[in-house]
Amino acid sequence: MAGLIRRHKRRQAVFRWVVVTVLGVFFLLPLYAMVEFTTRGPGNTRTGDTWRQLIDWDQLSQKYPDLAQGIANSFGLALLTTALMLVLLVPTVIWVRLRLPRLRRVLEFVCLLPLTIPAIVLVEGLAPVYAWVVYFIGGSSLTLTFAYTVLVLPYAYRSLDVGLSAIDVRTLAEAARSLGASWFTVIWRVVLPNLRFAVLSAAFLTVALVFGEFTIASLLNRNNLQVAIELLGKSSAQMSVAVSLASLILAFVLLFLISFVGRSRRTSREKT
Amino acid sequence: MSTVSQSPDRSKSGLTPTGPDLAAPQPPEVRAGPATLLRRLARGRNLLGVAPFTAFVVVFLAIPTLVVAIGAFTSDTNGFTLSNISALTSGYIVDAFVRSIVLSAASAVIGAVLGALLAYALATAKPGGILRRLVTAASGVLAQFGGVMLAFAFLATIGLSGFVTLFLRDNFGIDIFAGSVWLFELPGLIVVYTYFQIPLMVIVFLPALDGVRPQWREATMNLGGSTWQYWRMVAGPVLFPSFIGATLLLFANAFSAYATAAALVSQGSPIVPLQIRGALTSEVILGQANLGKAMALGMIAVVAVVMSLYALLQRRAAKWLG
Fold this sequence. Notes:
The structure holds two protein chains of two kinds.
Chain A: H1 2-38, H2 49-55, H3 57-63, H4 65-99, H5 104-112, H6 119-136, H7 145-166, H8 169-178, H9 183-194, H10 196-212, H11 215-219, H12 225-235, H13 237-271
Helix pairs in contact in A: 1-13, 3-4, 4-7, 4-10, 4-12, 7-10, 8-9, 12-13
Chain B: H1 2-13, H2 33-48, H3 51-71, H4 83-87, H5 91-123, H6 130-145, H7 148-158, H8 163-172, H9 186-210, H10 214-222, H11 227-256, H12 259-264, H13 272-281, H14 291-321
């Protein structure tokens, strides 16, 4: 039996390395090609000029104002969308859990709805709504935050829902209420601190989605990072590929680091 | 007097209460008016708590959806018409839908099979190991974040002056675009889509694989079962609903994807999302101002069917892997 299991483990290890190697080549090849493409100099030479320009913000914003503006917009949008998502969704989800449990299915349905409505479809319907947004607030790219909050609903709702299911909200709330806390205190000082990791993960998903969004920004004629990259592709291919690679690597490093944060939290909770 | 006596009557007739009130437990109904009134007030206050969220969702989700749904049946003169819907059966739109479905199905099946293999390889690795972490993080980036950047990655790889294209041409004399420039057509889109479908499969399918208990395999071995029997009779049937469900999710994902295709294909509109782009950005053909909305409605229909099947399978899968 023991020999059987060992042989089985060995076979699994071989299978694992074959699969990871073959698919690894498929996935790393385009990334390598991007490095190769962005370091091409005139006449078969290698040059780091593109990358040097990318790091130098002043030069970048002078030479590629759209790109600099797009990056700035994406940062602003990430901040605003996260804020709006937190303000709208977090209290609502907690409130429905505590006071309106019958509406939970409805809330879930509404929050997951954007999954079945492709962004390209949403744009069609958003165009007239945004005519009003421009009328009331103005045509800044930052107004995209409303549309992005809709896009992020499914992901944010899911992580908040998981977080809420892990704690006994009702007991916490009843304990706080019986000690004389107002509903605001219950949500702000009792439930929310217990939800901080769920809120963090919802916020992180929001930031990732905002930085990767292209469809709505492009078709509503607004500017963000992705729109700027796409635009750049038409004039300066090397720069657009360099920015693409840089953002992919940045996102990867961020996600990789976050996987450690999530891990240490879980182990520390198990200990207590 | 009249107002007090009216309120219990109204609640008994059950005509006015909205939503939650209807399902209220029966006994308290017989109590006096003021109590019902108070309770209803409390309930109204409770509903007030979800008012901001509701208002937001109505403006930015419900209205856009209605605009599309109503627009699909509206003529240029704002009258009711079915001509937008019937225009969906015209040649080039049917072609676009067929190509979209072929693209989504092909990339979903390839992505599901390869992604499942990769997910299985990870599931057998050490749970907190570095390999698993690296691959999951990379999958997260490529599956959710890719879009435009993936299009550029492939332009740099197998574009007309891409690394692989030049390498093969200079060293082996092979011109990969000898027949046609397929990168900007359906085959190219399938290759590029696979690049984000495989990672998505890893993310979706890995939890299902983690739900498979090692004890099941040990039990099979104890009973003298072979590896083949284990897969065919134990793990296979348990994982099958998850696998099909994940494939459907991949299909929906590819079907609604826009960014990659938009950045890659600048001329012509082979698939539905690009047809909608055409309808949105170019001059509209007379009498077809709302054709884009009809196509959008068609997309919602396809995705809705696929996603409900997915939800159904998900429930089935939860029985064993929950």
